[in-house]
Amino acid sequence: MSGDERAERGGASIPLLAVAHGSRDPRSAEAVSALFDRVRALRPELDVRLSYLDHVAPCAEDALDELAAGGAGEVVVLPTLLTAAFHSKVDLPEVLATARERSPWSRVHYADTLGPHPLLSSAVERRLNEVGAHADPDTALVLCSAGSSDAEANAVVARLAEELGERGPWREVVTAYASAVSPSPDEAVTAVRGRGAGRVAVATYLLAPGFFADRIHDRSMAAGATVVSPALGDSPELARIVLERYDATVSARHAVV
After folding, report:
1. What is the pLDDT of residues 65-94, one digit of tens each?
2. Is beta strand 173-177 parallel, antiparallel or unpaired with respect to 199-205?
3. pLDDT digits (tens, 9 = 90+) for 184-204
4. Dihedral over Cα of 48, 102, 57, 144: its sign
5. In this structure, what DSSP letter does residue 71 have?
6. CA proximity to 224, closest of 152, 139, 126
7. What is the pTM of this model?
8. Residue 219, CB half-sphere, CA atoms under 13 Å: how many?
9. How far apart, in whole angstroms, are the C-alpha atoms of residue 13 and residue 162?
10. Correct CATH for 132-228 of 3.40.50.1400, 3.40.50.1820, 3.40.50.10490, 3.90.1150.10
11. Overall fold of domain 3-115+235-252
């Protein structure tokens, strides 16, 4: 069976290399690893590799070198990020360009980031439900992401907040950011409290636990939040998105570096 024939049957012959942000906090890598264990369980014939941009081994460069040394003629690289910003637009493309210089025979297919995607609103709601938060007219929802200097990335988060507002009868849904831009989690919680919300639920819109997730939790609770959901982590919705991104990239078969 040719490589093209195998690709048409789902691309199982083409490895998937996920590239996550990475964190010094071991909880982050544990959550990301659990997510990709779920992906492997859904698609056991697929060679799924995991790498990181920072703090955790292997780095993306080493993972690509290992795949090339093992004879992989193609690879799908998935930026395991919730929004497209500096890391997916600049950092990772530079890494892939360098990898292609070292292994010019290897074809690299660059997938889209995890977000935006319709399933992410379901993943957010799942985490909120797990901590007892449900949409109701007296509860305000604060959707809190890491924050970015990239306005397009922040706009993606704002659109997700609008979607959540349309899906459930929240009193209101607003965005907040753990860094880079305003409002901060505590500012957002204080604002919706001041507008009369009886309860405030904060959704942690991060892939994994760590420094920013802790900041969101602590500052939100200090400002009077009723409940704060954990990071999305190992959710079935994210695993489905990973495989959708992989399949779409294999079907398109376009190398961008």
Report:
1. 899 889 888 999 999 999 976 555 667 777
2. unpaired
3. 999 999 999 999 999 999 999
4. negative
5. T
6. 139
7. 0.90
8. 22
9. 39
10. 3.40.50.1400
11. Rossmann fold (3.40.50)
